[in-house]
Amino acid sequence: MLLQVRNLTKSFTRKGQPFKAVDQVNFQLQAGEMAVLSGPSGCGKSTFFNLLTGILPADQGQIFFQSQDISQQSEAAWTKLRAHKLAYVPQTDSLLDNLCVLDNIILPHSLSGHPALPAEDIAQLLRGFGLAAVETAFPPELSGGERRRVAMVRALAQDPLLLIADEPTGDLDPDNAQIILTFLQKKAQEGLAVLLSTHQLESMPAGLSHYHMQAGQIDLS
Q1: pTM here?
Q2: b vs e for 31-50, b when ≥16 Cβ sit within 10 Å of the residue's Cβ?
């Protein structure tokens, strides 16, 4: 099993009252599996993803990646994991407007000390996402859908074992959403584990593993 989560919990305080954003969650994902997590806004999906990627520390529970308990590892170890094996695409757009598309893709990997894929492989990713014509364009010149696809290419350019994407098709037109989902399915067939969240379950392709989150808990039935 590539990813396994046991009793993962994260609490916050709202108006002086504690609440569990993620409540005793158990979950697992294997290599080559593409899974979608649905649920209403505020149910805990983004918090869960931030725990899985080390952005937030868990209050309790364990996260195993490649059978290794990574729950209590250092921030440096989390950073290395995100640079080498675990790619995360959050909802927020973090492209740098003063860098062209190609430089936006390459820069994070250069800074991490883990170089991106070779240029020809990045070019193939850009073609796969319908972005070949915008390689030298700058983010302000792109549509919202193109910017979302560039962020996806940037994540995949590290050749990860696991890709986690928070609402990757949110607010996109059907054509842009289909480009992203089709390519992710292709990568899953090649062995990449993919976990994504969505409010648009009706747009998800058939055959995916589907889990529903409600009030911080995931229904595994």
Answers
A1: 0.93
A2: eebbbbbbbeeebbbbbbbb
